[in-house]
User: Which sequence fits this backbone?
């Protein structure tokens, strides 16, 4: 990296990287909330996302799921997000 960007820039990147999360967050919880809103059961969501039904129920208890409204009839021109 030092050869590509220079030693000072490489050191700056390294200092910045110290504050980044070590793991990349996944969108599984959000996808589960959307599928639940579409009427899928917890068991089906768990199977699709390769998690346990216990995990899906724990996600359901979070605020993210409380903010979703039941889906209205879909506009046929709108492609499904997931």
Assistant:
């Amino acid at each position: 990296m030092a050869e590509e960007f220079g030693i000072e820039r490489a050191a700056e990147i390294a200092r910045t990287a110290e504050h980044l999360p070590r793991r990349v967050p996944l969108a599984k919880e959000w996808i589960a909330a959307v599928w639940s809103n579409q009427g899928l059961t917890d068991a089906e969501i768990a199977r699709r996302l390769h998690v346990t039904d216990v995990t899906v129920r724990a996600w359901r208890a979070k605020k993210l799921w409380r903010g979703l409204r039941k889906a209205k009839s879909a506009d046929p021109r709108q492609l499904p997000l997931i």
The mean pLDDT is 85. Residues 25-72 form one domain. The first helix runs from residue 2 to 5.
